Amino acid sequence: MKRFRTSLAAKTAAVLLALAVGAGGFWSTVFILYQWDTLWLGSGYYDSNDYYSDLYNRSSQVRELARLLQNQEWNGALPYLDQRRLDMLEEALSPERTNFRFAIRRNDTGTLVYSNLEGAASLDESVHAVEQEELSLTQNGAAREQDYVVWNGKEQYYLLYIALPDAAGTKQLVTPEDAGLAAQYGYTFDGYEWAYDEMRDSRVTTSVLALEYGATDPLTVQDEFWDSYQDYQQYASYLPALAVLALPESLSGSFWSLALWGGLAATAVEAAGLPVIQAAIAPALAAVPPSATYAALLVFTADTVVSLQLLRRAGDPAVLSLGNLRAA
User: Fold this and answer.
1) What are the backbone angles phi and psi of residue 186, rounded to the nearest 5°?
2) CA torsion, points 117, 122, 128, 133, in degrees to nearest 10?
3) I need a surface site. Which of 39, 224, 278, 292 has the fewest CB within 10 A?
């Protein structure tokens, strides 16, 4: 292979340029892989990672709001700091401040507990898609922590002491013969020890709530959903340039090669962003195992290391051209 002789300054510049291009290609590839589900497998912003990240954060607020509202119902009033937090959550989740919409209902009856929907609009009409989850809350769930057992060596079984729900914290001795009393507090005896079921404990009050939520479509309030939608649009516009930057040296070693393969790569990426193309390729892309993605990243990293080593020895980017590599 013909070796190009250049000055030290030219060699240094070539190596620095190669490092910059290699780093750019590496991080471009990492970015594309990171946003793979968002920009390739989804059908738009409402299927993106950014959207679901914001949705999860807001749903956490709804769960906290539901707990405070339930405690308020059980106890009649909230402590000062809990009431302050409730007021802050109601303000943060008001429809004037967020595109997030939600409804809290009794899971057994469907009775509405709280909602930030405006007017008579239903949740299905207000959001792009409705997400649902169940939230189970308990009052006096720690009552069992005061119960304990004592081994009866004579009878060869455990005696049970139950903390009664009175102000004095009275302990009630329960033997296997007291099956009815034990069942009242969620205990059953199996001939040796006591099994506990919180759902049957009369000291514990349980409330199961249904949480439903989503984000409006279109977005009308400037909040985190609005911001992530703008970011999503920018991600989509960056992809063609990133695809060109991630091309291997063998396809971008000359102007005409870069023009050909870069144009094809940019066009392919832009076409893949169209819903009709996404619908066609989504099954195939979804079938690619994660191990294949990591293997491709490993090969890319190894190629970068080898390319830098060749540049260090040759001192000229032309050493990486397809023709020179074949001649070697």
Assistant:
1) 85, 15
2) 80
3) 292
